[in-house]
Each structure stands twice: as C-alpha cells, then as structure tokens.
C-alpha cells in the first residue's frame, strides 16, 4: 500500500526519468552513490514520514506548543518523532561529507523534504531552521565555531534558528534595532527584541543556536550596517551550560502550524547575552543572502507538500464517498449511487490539483537539481548556467508554489464538502498550515520584486535569456512529436506572451518608468510561474509519451481499445497516461489565460497608484 | 468615525444612487416608507453591528460552542447580543406586516445582513436559520401552525433550523432515510439522524423549531417522496413544554464559525418524536425549493460580508503599518519609512479587494432589489422579468461571492504579513469563517450545475436572453459617454465571450453532448460571475462619472490639477473617483482573462472524464 502523502511513483519519475539524477553519479562528487542507494533513502524517508511523522500531525495541531515558565514545550509525540529523525541522520542528507553530512544530491533531499513536510509541516520546521543556521556556520564560521556549533547542529543534537524580524522590521529588515557591543574578549553583548522566530524556543534539544542579525554600534544605517551573530541559548563555559539571557516572552497563536513554535525572543534584557560574530562586521546581509535560495526553496516545498498530501486525501475521499447517481441516470431515483469521483466537477477539480501539484514537484526538484549541477559542473560556465536557472526560478519556486499549493488545499476542502470544513479530516489542517508559506521567508510580494527588480535585470537579462533558450529547445523537440502536436500550441503561445511582457518591462525600465514593473511584479510572477510549471509538464509529457508508446509497442496494443485496456491493467501505462493528461489539462485550461494575463499587465492600468488615498474608503 | 465593517458610503450609493430604493416607496407595498426611514434603519443596524455584535466575534471564535449533557451552549457574550438583536426586531425586517414583520424592502435587508454578518458571521446564523424556517411556515403552514410557531420565530422568541443533510445524503438529498409514520391524530412519528445542522441546538432561545425532511412510509424513492415536517424541540401540551426526543449527539469541530453550533441531531431514537406535516405529503422538495433563492442569497452575503470586513481591516492596517521607505528612495537607508499603503503591490491588492467587494455588494443588493420589484410589480410580465433576473443570478450570488469573498480575505491576510497569520488580527478569523460559504447551502459545484442545467435551459433560454438584453442597454449608454470610452471595451469583449460560450453550450445540448456543459459548469459560472460583477461596476461607473462631473462643474474644477485637488478635499468627489477606479481596475485586470476563460471552456479538453481512474494516482 503506497503512502497517502506523496505520489511516490511521480517522485521517482521526476528524479530518474526527468532529471536522471542517477547520472549525477558519473561525477566524482556523487561517484560513490547509485540509484539503489537513492531508492533506499527514498524508501526509508517514506517510512519515517508515514509511520512516525504523520501520526503526530494532528496532535501538533490540536495541542500546539505551550509556554510555561519561560520554556516552550512541544507536544509530547514530537519528541519520539524527533528521535527517529535524528537517528536517521536526515538533517544532514545533502551536507558535504567533509562537514559531517552524507553528501547526497539536493534533488533527492527535496524528495525527502516533501515527504516530511507532507507528513507534518510544523515538525519539519525544527530541522529546517537548524540546517539553515548550521549552513551559515559551515560557510562563514571559523573552524572553532564549526566544531563548537555546526557539528552538533548537523546531528540535530542542538537546534538552530534565524533571528531577523523585529516589531518594526519585517520586510524592511534594514530597520532592525538589535544592538551588538564588542567586548574585550572579542565577543559581543547583544541587546534587542525579535519576533516571529520559528523554532525560537522548544524542548526538543538541550541547546538552541540563534543566528541573530544585529547592528554593531557605529555601523552604517540600513542593511549595510547589519552583522550576524551566533547566539546560543546556553553558552558552554568549562563544560557547563550557562544561560545566555535569551528569553522567550511569547508564542504566537496562529492560523496553523500550531506545532511549530513562533516566538518573541528578548536578548540581553536582564543579564548579559553574549554573541559571537560570524564572518566580518557588517557582512550580515551578504551572509544571509547566500542562504536565501535554500530557505526559499524549502518554503516552496511546504506549498508542494501540503498540496501533495491534500490531493492524495481528496482523491481517496472521492473514491470512497458515495453520493448521488451517475450523471446520465440522475433522474432515476433508483439508480445506484456512485463515488463522487465519478462526478465530472469532482474529476475536474482533482485533475487540476494533480496537474498543478506535479508541475510544482518537477519545478522544485529541478531547483534542487540545479544546485547539484552547480556543485559538480566541470566548467565555470556550466556552473553559472545552472546557478542562473536556480536564481531566476527561486522566487517562482517560493511564491507560485505557496500560492498555488494553497489553492490545491482549498480545492481538497471543497472536494470533501462539509467534511472538508471539519477538523476530523486532515485537509482542513493542510489548508491552514500552508497559508503561512505565502508570507514568511519574504512575502510573495517581495519575491515578485526580487524577480522583477533583481533577477530580470541581472547582467542584461542573461538569466531570462537562458530560460527562453532552454524552453525553446524543449518546444522544438516537442513539436517534432506528432502525437503531442495538439497540446504544444498553448505552451508556445504562453511562452511568447511571457517574452513579450518581459521585453515590455525592459522598455519601461529604459524609459525610466520603474513603476509599471513594480506595480505588476506579482501578476508577472504568476504568469512566469504558469509558463515555468507548464514547461515542466511539457518536458514530462515528452518523456511519458515515449515510454507509453514503448509499452503499447511491447504489448502490441495498436488500436484505441487495446491501448485503453493496457492503461487500465498496466500500472506503468496508467501512470504515463496520467502524466500526459496533466500536461494536456494544464495546456488547455490554465495556459489559455496567459494572453489575458499579459494583456492585463500591459494595459497601462495604474489606478492602484494614481488613486488618492481618500478614494479607497472614507475613514 | 465610520464603522470598520462595511463601507457605509458605498452601501448608500448602491441603495439610493444605483438601485434608487427610495423610488420603491411609490408603490403601495412600500408606500409608508421613505428614505429617511431607510436611513434610520441603516444607522441602527450599523450601531448594533459595531457596538454589540462585533465585540462578540472573537469570543465566539475562541470559546466556541460546547455540548454538555445533551445541551449546546453558546459563548456567554452571544446572549446579550441576541437580546439586542431581538429587541430591534431585526429578524423580521423584510417580513410582510400582515405576518407580523416590518415589511421593509429586501434590498435594505441585504444591507443590514451584510453589516451583521460582517460583525459576526457565526452569530448571524441563528437568526438566519430561524427566518428561513419561519418563512416556510408563512408560505405553507396552516393558520394554526403560523400562530403556534411562526409568530414566535419572527420575534426570535423561538429559533428554527433546516434539517436536510444525513450522513449518506448531502448533495444527494433524495437519498435521505429519516422516516415519518402517520399517527392516528394526524401528526407523524419521526425517526432518523441528521448531520451538519446549523444552529441545531443552543441555549439562545427556549425552544427550537426544526424543519425536517423525511420520507413517509410507502412514499416514492428519491426527491419525489420527501415530505417536510415541523418538529419542535419541545412540544407544547396544555401550556407545558414537553421534550420531543430531538437529541443533539455531537457538535462539529470546524475550521471557522466556531460560535455557530453545527449539530448531529437524532430524532425519535429513544422516545417518540412528533412532527407536524407542512403542506402536503411528498411536497417537501417543492417547498424547500421555494426558499432556496433566499437562503443562497444569504450565503452569498456571508462571502460579501467577510470580504467587506477584511478589506476595511486591511486598509486600516496598511495605513497604520510603517515599513520600508517609498520605492523611489529604496536605496537610501536614511529615507523616512512610509505606511505600507504607499507600496504599489499593497495598493494593487487593496484595489483588487475594493473592486471585487463593491461588485459583489452591488450584485447581492440587486438580487434583493429584484425580490422587491417582483413583489410590487404592476404586471405579471414585470414580475416575471425580475424573478428571472433573480433566478439566473442566484447561483452566481452564492458561488461567485463565496469563492471571491474568500479570495478577498486571503489577500487581507497577505496585506497583514506575518500578523495576518496570527489570531491577534481579525482577518485570520474572517478567512476561516468565510470558507464554509463555498460549501453549504449547495456546494459551489451544485450552484454551477443549477446555473447550467436548470437556469440556462429554462423556457428556451429566456433568462439568459434577458441578461444579454439588459447588459446591452447598459453598454450602449456607457459607450455614449466619451469619458468612459477607455474602459468600456473590456466589458463589451467579456460579454461577447460569455454569449459565445452560452451558445456553444446550447449547441452541445442540441447534439446531446450534455457532458461538456456539465464538465465546465464551474468555470462557466466563474466567467458569468466576472461579467455580471463587471456590469454592476460599469453601471456604477456611469452614475459615478455623472456625479463627479457635476461636482467638478460646481467647483469650476476645469483642469486636471483642480480636479485632483477637489478629489483630495471633497469626500463625495473622493468617493466617486474611487467608484470609477473600481470599475476601471476590474475592466483592465480581471476582465481581460475572459477570452482565455472562454477558450478554455470551449477547448474540448475532456481529460478529466476520459482519464481512467488508475491514472489519477496508484493506490
């Protein structure tokens, strides 16, 4: 019985048939691995997700975290899940071996992340933040800092956090006020307040290492004067744990991810709180930026994971739930009842969910794969190419996947009818949990500005040009396949519109009209996402079509009837037929909106900024 | 200080300037009323909503309802709110005076419903269900039944419910199993189980009158054999309250509307439960159908109300919350911080919310206005015309408003950033509360089937033809105004595409391809909704343009600068300028998608139904 969290057949399709990650083993970096080893990892991840993490998900939601006497406690069931997670060494899966990790490809890590987050998004925050923090120390820490902190974090003996946000400094991180004062011994005194700190306090590990953005006295204002510090919850002095005056003053009551503690932390308000500089003074933002791609990919992964789990649940519910007769016998009160899966509107919703979820999966794993290709690229040119794909796709991975992942969970609720609105069924939680993904790690509005303001203009638009080229190659090869000719056109048209809008933005920038791209950054990201996801599905369709054809040939299925029969009886044929349907459905129902979206962006409509404040409402 | 629930200026604009409900007073039916009286009602409703209902909203969410010893208790604060509500006679506002009501127009009632639901959607369920149930008795009950039940329900001394759903009978109401057996005295013994009964039990009133669908023994299967019964929680025998074995066995734990009790009720499981037939045997569905429009309009109103409250909150937050410098000074770390309202992406979100919310408000009040016009129509023809508008628009009022109302609340959360995800701010609750509106009172999928399967085909498509004609007249008049010429085209184009798709559905039906309209019913409803809402905004733009022009003329504002100055200083000018922007924004950013939506519907894409079950996922 396959798990009900992630379609494992599709995971393998992306990893082995689309990205061919087994071919990464040709490179020295991954030379010791093999497909068999990847399969073992996947299987173990599935088991952990299904048997240990998923059963704690509702518990986390219902019980949530509590703050008692300055200490946050997570639900009891999280502790055992955490032990299993640590024992498996899951956190360090993609970490280089010389740093104490296992050195697996990131693409594979993505597949495990999807499984874990699908099982329990709130739980997955604790290792997620820890790895993010540890990576900073890996890249910028001294050997001593690595030995003291990073090693214990990669084993998850200690956890970690990222402390950026302050009450007055959210999206505008440069406005932060936490102060760092150098002490005679080279360490710093840290004083300030942080909010919305995920995994900010909890009782899963004996120590928590906070990566704290703060301003050294006399540093320049804004982002240029920010430094980053390692601030442990407990300092180790002569082998003893000494409290470091990091106080958790509140935990937020949230719409979802109740099992994840979202803390207000106060540093050095009472006694002295000591931090250790990471890298150089005023390098804080540069250091943080280096880890941004990874963190944003992880949040996109949350969007995918909840979509994935919600789709599987909705599909199962639709197959189980009997309601009403088939549409053709609707007027016969004695007609047998059928599962709601047989109702066209339900099937339409399910195929939408399937298509979008599979597209996101492909895009996100592809982003992980780009990281891998950067790491083992034989030339700087090739490394730059894959880094470029990664850089331009990251805001789409984060924003499109979180927004559309939410839509998938919303439809899963709808498929469940009244039951979908009740806590009894897991989709209700999926929907609440995933909403945060559109907000944190840079709101989706910030992602859109990053795409339009930074990524499009990087080196005269080289990143976008490379996307245009790559999709062009794919399109050309798809067009050669006469069996795909019916579905290729919408991809072609949507891509042309994306190119047209991008050129239009370029022209606007030349004429110094920066406002238009900024005003339409979010709709632009949406359009870009439609095209990017679309091309992932087209890529998959090319492969699936070939495989399906081979199966037809092998079985000598040369009539429509024989082909249909094979699809019904052969699991692989059924799967490839489903892949083709995902691409076709996306092409015919989502991509036709691309011209209208482009027209809307280029409409010149500026009411939103031209309208006086008073006209929004009178108060 | 205006309330922060509903833009009262816009309410008055719809009622008096667009629908001109004061002109209804020309008819005998509303002859005793005047605009002054309507204003008094509005003012009192605002006060009740703001001062008494809104303060209990979070309480209802946090405390919710509890089931103790078979009795449901609502949060304590609801009791006082309920008293104020009853004292004001709000429930019976639109009920005919000869039935004990106040006889006000439904359009005005809509405005009060919006206010009350915006203040506390969960609370508004109790009177909502009561009035729905009482109306059935008004229309189909004997004089004795009216005296015994209806009178007490219109004063809210007793409450009411609608008991349709059973575990196996949700959307397929014909599958219900609750049995009714005639007793010698003409009453019936009722035995069965109902679920998802809103306001099914509570302690706000001393008695609850359930309207229960059940099957009399020997009745035909399916919907044709359903009867409807009045089943009081307590029977009155010789002036005494006698328990009638209606047991609340569970209350659902839900995503939202925690203050509204959603009950599992068991009838006659232990002792005898007696019900009284309403109308004739087997007339149950016919009777229910008569009240459908009203109930669905009320649910659409919930979509509007949460959108309205969420927009007002988001706007206020955006004006209050300082974050980041203005976009043009972004690189200057010393630049002053501005409210996020000054960031283009936030303004884009807010204007989207404003435009959609105002469009829904206009459409829903218009539906109420159609009811009024039916009631006082001098000819049968005119009555039929307005009834037709109402009938075809109802599924759109319900489904479009609930789906898009949810989108508005989602954007309100996004505008709030991390705070939007926290319970501390009311938008988090708005989003959870409103989600149910897409599901109950006929899921939005059912609404779409009603539109496509029933309303489009009624009398050779007369209902749609009337819509085409009415929008055509409006378009013609808008086109004559040279100041509106820039915004008229998208309305024209979108309308043409709706007509084209409708014709296409008609052709499909002629060729007996019923599957295509059924498969695309939901996307069709969405497109129809876009056009319907669009034309409401165009209608408003025509009026607002004229009024604004008058203000310009009066103030001798004859240059762009003077006009802009007037808009900034004159509240009416600011408002009308905002109305024009709502229409223009909708025209340029939402309606351009109409051609793509139409293309998608007519694409012939049938994967969803053609795909074998096995291809959706392998389990």
Automatic annotation (TrEMBL), chains A, B:
- Show where the Acyl-CoA dehydrogenase/oxidase C-terminal domain sits: 282-451
* Catalytic reaction annotation: 3-(methylsulfanyl)propanoyl-CoA + oxidized [electron-transfer flavoprotein] + H(+) = 3-(methylsulfanyl)acryloyl-CoA + reduced [electron-transfer flavoprotein]
What keywords is this UniProt entry annotated with?
Answer: FAD, Flavoprotein, Oxidoreductase
Stated family: Belongs to the acyl-CoA dehydrogenase family.
Subunit comment = Homotetramer.
User: Highest lineage ranks of the organism?
Assistant: Bacteria, Pseudomonadati, Thermodesulfobacteriota, Desulfomonilia, Desulfomonilales
- Could you tell me what this protein does? Involved in the assimilation of dimethylsulphoniopropionate (DMSP), an important compound in the fixation of carbon in marine phytoplankton, by mediating the conversion of 3-(methylthio)propanoyl-CoA (MMPA-CoA) to 3-(methylthio)acryloyl-CoA (MTA-CoA).
What positions does the domain Acyl-CoA oxidase/dehydrogenase middle occupy? 162-267
Record-level Gene Ontology MF annotations: acyl-CoA dehydrogenase activity; flavin adenine dinucleotide binding
Q: Which organism is it from?
A: Desulfomonile tiedjei (strain ATCC 49306 / DSM 6799 / DCB-1)
Q: State the EC number(s).
A: 1.3.99.41
Q: Tell me its cofactors.
A: FAD
Which InterPro entries has this protein been placed in? Answer: Acyl-CoA_dh-like_C_dom, Acyl-CoA_DH_CS, Acyl-CoA_Oxase/DH_mid-dom, Acyl-CoA_Oxase/DH_mid-dom_sf, AcylCo_DH-like_C, AcylCo_DH/oxidase_C, AcylCoA_DH/ox_N, AcylCoA_DH/ox_N_sf
Q: Where is the Acetyl-CoA dehydrogenase-like C-terminal domain?
A: 481-612
- Residue ranges occupied by any Acyl-CoA dehydrogenase/oxidase N-terminal domain in the UniProt entry: 39-157
Q: What is this protein called?
A: 3-methylmercaptopropionyl-CoA dehydrogenase
């Amino acid at each position: 019985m396959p798990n009900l969290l992630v379609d494992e057949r599709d995971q393998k399709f992306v990893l082995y048939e689309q990205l061919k990650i087994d071919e990464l083993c040709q490179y020295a970096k991954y030379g010791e691995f093999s497909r068999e080893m990847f399969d073992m990892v996947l299987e173990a991840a599935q088991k952990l997700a299904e048997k240990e993490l998923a059963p704690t998900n509702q518990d986390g939601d219902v019980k949530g975290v509590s703050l008692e006497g300055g200490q946050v406690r997570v639900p009891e069931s999280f502790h055992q899940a955490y032990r299993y997670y640590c024992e498996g060494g899951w956190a360090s899966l993609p970490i280089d071996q010389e740093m104490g990790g296992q050195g697996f490809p990131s693409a594979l890590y993505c597949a495990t992340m999807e499984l874990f987050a699908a099982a329990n998004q709130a739980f997955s925050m604790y290792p997620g933040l820890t790895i993010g923090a540890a990576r900073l120390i890996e890249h910028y820490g001294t050997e001593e800092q690595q030995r003291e902190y990073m090693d214990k974090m990669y084993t998850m003996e200690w956890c970690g956090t990222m402390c950026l946000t302050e009450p007055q400094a959210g999206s505008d991180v440069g406005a932060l006020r936490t102060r760092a004062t150098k002490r005679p011994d080279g360490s710093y005194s840290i004083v300030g307040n942080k909010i919305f700190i995920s995994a900010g306090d909890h009782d899963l590990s004996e120590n928590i290492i906070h990566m704290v953005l703060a301003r050294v006295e006399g540093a320049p204002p804004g982002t240029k004067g920010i430094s980053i510090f390692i601030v442990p919850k407990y300092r180790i002095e002569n082998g003893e744990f000494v409290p470091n005056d990091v106080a958790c003053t509140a935990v937020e009551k949230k719409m979802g991810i109740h099992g994840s503690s979202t803390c207000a932390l106060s540093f050095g308000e009472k006694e002295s709180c000591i931090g250790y500089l990471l890298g150089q003074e005023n390098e804080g933002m540069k250091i943080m930026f280096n880890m941004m791609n990874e963190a944003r990919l992880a949040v996109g992964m949350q969007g995918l994971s909840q979509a994935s789990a919600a789709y599987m649940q909705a599909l199962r519910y639709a197959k189980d739930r009997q309601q009403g007769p088939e549409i053709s016998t609707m007027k016969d009160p004695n007609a047998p009842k059928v599962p709601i899966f047989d109702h066209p509107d339900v099937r339409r919703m399910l195929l939408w969910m399937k298509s979008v979820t599979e597209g996101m999966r492909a895009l996100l794993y592809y982003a992980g794969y780009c990281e891998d290709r950067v790491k083992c690229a034989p030339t700087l040119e090739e490394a730059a190419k894959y880094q470029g794909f990664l850089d331009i796709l990251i805001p789409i991975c984060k924003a499109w996947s979180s927004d559309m992942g939410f839509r998938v969970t919303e439809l899963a609720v709808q498929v469940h009818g009244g039951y979908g609105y009740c806590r009894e069924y897991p989709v209700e939680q999926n929907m609440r949990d995933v909403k945060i993904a559109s907000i944190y790690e840079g709101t989706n509005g910030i992602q859109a500005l990053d795409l339009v303001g930074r990524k499009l203009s990087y080196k005269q638009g080289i990143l976008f040009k490379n996307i245009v080229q790559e999709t062009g190659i794919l399109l050309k090869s798809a067009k050669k396949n006469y069996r795909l000719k019916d579905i290729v056109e919408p991809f072609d048209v949507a891509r042309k519109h994306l190119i047209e809008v991008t050129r239009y933005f370029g022209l606007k920038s030349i004429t110094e009209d920066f406002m238009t791209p900024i005003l339409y950054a979010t709709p632009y990201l949406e359009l870009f996402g439609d095209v990017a996801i679309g091309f992932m599905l087209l890529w998959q369709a090319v492969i699936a079509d070939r495989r399906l054809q081979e199966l037809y040939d092998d079985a000598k299925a040369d009539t429509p009837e024989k082909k249909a029969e094979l699809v019904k009886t052969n699991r692989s044929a059924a799967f490839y037929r489903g892949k083709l349907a995902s691409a076709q459905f996306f092409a015919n129902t989502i991509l036709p909106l691309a011209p209208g979206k482009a027209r809307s962006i280029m409409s010149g409509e500026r009411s939103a900024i031209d309208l006086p404040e008073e006209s929004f409402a009178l108060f």
